[in-house]
């Protein structure tokens, strides 16, 4: 059940894990804030956020636009009404180096299978550092305006938006019946300085930066306050549109201008990476003269039909990317180091800093990753910071990339106090006092308390019974805590199976739950009934409840949909062999596992590791002796001629790349397999198809070509 230590993640693994964490945490935020139905304990939730942060601190360049660390406080507040975005408000992936930009363009070309001489036109425009807003017009009249919120549900700030001069209340010219214009609310440097001057005089709080000022001004219950604040708006995107006024990104932005919106004058189209980069440098060079904050340049594929084909990965489009400006730095004093214990027992050091402003944001703490990082030792044992260690009392260089909690880059040795002592990393868990050890080759020190460590054990059980897991009525966090603490063998619950043996253990003992304070006959009977009710449970819930690293609800659902049956999944997870080194692709079970839509190497590895661990198998077997996971429904939500079917693509495809074919089929509810078997429903064969095609005809499986595929899916 071990999670991969942050320090041993490769950059690619870190990126994919950050994407997963963003999605998982956003899901929890949504359930907590919008649906008032959290499915995770606060401690678990914090652990997810901490891991996200730890990864970001090691890889500040990977910080995502939709990172949970950016959205602290962005959760939809109770004081505004909620607006569900019909078209979700997504975020952008980041590029930092020039190579990331060429890779972005290369990925697009490959996905679309563009020939070497076919240009792909891409727009470049400043990335405004404000907050995004979606404004809906019906028959040309502003009807609602909503903040992004968590991307799915935002705050209703209609009355406030109406007071912003750059936002028309009534559209001009020729507009569609329904159009949602999206863009950025921001405050200019001059207006920000003036507002702070006024506030200071009046003894009111001053804002740290224009972005906070813009957000604070827009999210006012008293709209006269919003009206008194000089907010501005650039239009650059859209949500629902009844009739598209243009077929390019540039055309859409031109249309918004014709409706009466401000659009950014620095937006231009290019057909080469060099062109994009020259615009990036031009904008960066002029950054200080713009009069408002920007934090990078956004590139977007211009043709909307190509955007459509490219689609999305997780919560960001494949057709756009944000090329960020480099991080900002500052120096401050390290005043202390605290240790936090994660759900898997990992001990994470956190730096406490004397507050310092880095790029307009006050910074007070930072994760120090692990004990080696503090000592000046890198992932593979090599010295970092030329071997300089970090000590309490040191003056440190803090870097903040994007708008996240920072990392400590280095120590200024000249300023080290003469009496500063090397930091001694604790060898005992601060939660349970068990020994905290580092296994061979591991960078993370972990509490060995396992189930006796309250920080870990109770968390796992709580997760097991949480709403989207087993969801047993009458068995909440309080009761779990009680059963866990109980020393009575008839009452103690230390692992999931114990929940299901509770009734039998009671019957065989003198201890009766109904005689215990807080229970009583009725609630005891109800609890046992509720537990019995869960002896059959959906596969995806069961899987989610196991608390395997990286298997949140979404991934549990994905795996359940793919494997249908828990035994099949377990067999696959047990049989899968991870690839060793370059060129190795792992065995067939591994390939199938990583071929499941949305399941990458990190998740697959966690599955394999879970089943490889004897203790997990014991816990699982004990549980399976009590509980039966039900087979997942075969058909997906999507109804299309291929939904629920297993499709194999083989041979060379000419009109779409393999990735596009797969994405398309999965979007239509099909399952895409890598090899032909009796379970295959359809084979799409391009020129040069060989053994798979042969096997398909031997098995009597339907075979069509690429044109046949397009005809089939269009017909749906
Ligand atoms: S396009 C599907 N263009 O960046 C992507 N976003 O991570 C739609 N932003 O939340 C966004 N300037 O608040 C786009 N010129 C620009 C932008 C921009 C700022 C912000 C926006 C969004 C975030 C995306």
Which class do the helix and strand fractions yield? alpha+beta
CATH topology of the largest domain: D-amino Acid Aminotransferase, Chain A, domain 1
Question: pLDDT below 50 for ≥5 consecutive residues: which ranges?
Answer: none
- The radius of gyration computed from the alpha-carbon positions, rounded to a whole number of angstroms, is 28 Å
Integer tally of domains? 6
CATH architectural name of the largest domain: 2-Layer Sandwich
> How many strands, what sense, and barrel or not for the largest sheet?
5 strands, mixed
Kindly report the spatial arrangement of strands forming the biggest sheet.
2-13-10-3-9
Mean pLDDT: 88
Specify the CATH class of the largest domain: Alpha Beta
Task: Give the helix level as a range of percent.
Answer: 25-40%
Number of strand elements: 26
Proportion of strand residues: 15-25%
Quaternary form: single chain
The bound ligands are: 2-(butylsulfanyl)adenosine
- Termini separation comes to 43 Å
The number of distinct helices, counting runs of at least 4 residues, comes to 24
Which word captures the global form? Answer: globular
CATH homologous superfamily caption of the largest domain = DNA ligase/mRNA capping enzyme
Give structural attributes.
716 residues; Helix Hairpins; OB fold (Dihydrolipoamide Acetyltransferase, E2P); 6 domains; 5-stranded mixed beta sheet; 24 helices; 20% strand; binds 2-(butylsulfanyl)adenosine
């Amino acid at each position: 059940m071990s999670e991969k230590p942050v320090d041993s993640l490769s950059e690619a693994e870190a990126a994919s894990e950050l994407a997963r964490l963003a999605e998982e945490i956003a899901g929890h935020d949504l359930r907590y804030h919008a649906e008032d139905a959290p499915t995770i304990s606060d401690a678990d939730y914090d652990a997810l956020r901490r891991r996200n942060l730890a990864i970001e601190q090691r890889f500040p360049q990977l910080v995502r636009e939709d990172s949970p660390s950016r959205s602290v406080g962005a959760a939809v507040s109770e004081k505004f009404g909620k607006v569900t975005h019909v078209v979700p408000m997504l975020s952008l992936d980041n590029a930092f180096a020039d190579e990331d930009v060429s890779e972005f363009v290369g990925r697009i070309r490959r996905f679309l299978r563009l020939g070497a001489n076919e240009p792909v036109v891409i727009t470049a425009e400043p990335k405004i550092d404000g907050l995004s807003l979606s404004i809906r017009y019906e028959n040309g009249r502003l009807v609602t305006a909503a903040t992004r919120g968590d991307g799915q549900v935002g705050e209703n700030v209609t009355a406030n938006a109406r007071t912003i001069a750059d936002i028309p209340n009534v559209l001009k010219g020729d507009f569609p019946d329904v159009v949602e214009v999206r863009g950025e609310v921001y405050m200019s440097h001059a207006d920000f300085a003036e507002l702070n001057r006024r506030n200071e005089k009046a003894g009111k709080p001053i804002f740290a930066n224009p972005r906070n000022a813009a957000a604070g001004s827009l999210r006012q219950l008293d709209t006269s306050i919003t009206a008194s604040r000089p907010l501005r708006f650039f239009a650059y995107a859209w949500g629902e549109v009844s009739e598209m006024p243009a077929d390019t990104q540039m055309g859409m932005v031109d249309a918004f201008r014709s409706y009466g919106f401000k659009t950014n004058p620095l937006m231009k189209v290019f057909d080469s990476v060099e062109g994009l980069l020259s615009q990036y440098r031009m904008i960066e060079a002029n950054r200080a003269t713009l009069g408002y904050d920007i934090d990078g340049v956004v590139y977007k594929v211009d043709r909307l039909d190509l955007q459509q084909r490219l689609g999305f990965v997780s919560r960001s489009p494949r057709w756009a990317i944000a090329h960020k400006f480099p991080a900002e730095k500052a120096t401050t004093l390290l005043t202390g180091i605290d240790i936090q214990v994660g759900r898997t027992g990992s001990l994470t050091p956190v730096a406490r800093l004397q507050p310092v402003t880095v790029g307009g944001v006050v910074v007070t703490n930072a994760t120090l990753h692990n004990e080696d990082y503090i000592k000046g030792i890198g992932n593979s044992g090599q010295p970092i910071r030329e071997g300089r260690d970090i000590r309490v009392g040191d003056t440190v260089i803090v870097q903040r990339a994007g708008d996240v909690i920072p990392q400590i880059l280095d120590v200024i040795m000249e300023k080290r106090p003469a009496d500063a002592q090397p930091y001694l990393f604790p060898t005992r868990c601060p939660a349970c006092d068990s020994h905290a050890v580092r296994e061979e080759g591991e960078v993370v020190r972990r509490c060995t308390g396992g189930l006796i460590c309250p920080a870990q054990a109770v968390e796992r059980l709580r997760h097991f019974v949480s709403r989207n897991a087993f969801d047993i009525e009458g068995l909440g966090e309080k009761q779990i805590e009680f059963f866990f603490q109980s020393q009575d063998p008839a009452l103690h619950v230390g692992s999931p199976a114990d929940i299901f043996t509770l009734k039998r253990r009671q019957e065989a003992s003198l201890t009766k739950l109904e005689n215990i304070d807080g229970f009583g006959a009725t609630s005891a009977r109800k609890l046992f009934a509720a537990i019995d009710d869960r002896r059959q449970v959906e596969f995806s819930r069961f899987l989610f409840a196991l608390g395997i690293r990286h298997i949140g609800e979404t991934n549990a659902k994905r795996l359940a949909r793919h494997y249908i049956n828990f035994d099949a999944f377990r067999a696959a997870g047990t049989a899968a062999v991870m690839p060793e080194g370059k060129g190795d692709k792992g065995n067939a079970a591994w390939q199938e596992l990583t071929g499941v839509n949305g399941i990458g190497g990190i998740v697959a590895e966690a599955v394999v590791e879970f089943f490889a661990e004897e203790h997990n198998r014991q816990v699982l077997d004990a549980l399976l002796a009590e509980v039966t996971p039900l087979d997942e429904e075969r058909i997906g939500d999507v109804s299309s001629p291929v939904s629920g079917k297993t499709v194999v693509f083989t041979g060379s495809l000419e009109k779409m790349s393999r990735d596009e074919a797969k994405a398309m089929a999965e979007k239509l509810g099909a399952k895409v397999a890598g090899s032909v078997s009796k379970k295959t429903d359809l084979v799409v064969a391009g020129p040069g198809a060989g053994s798979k095609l042969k096997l398909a005809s031997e098995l009597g499986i339907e075979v069509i070509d690429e044109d046949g595929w397009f005809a089939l899916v269009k017909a749906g």
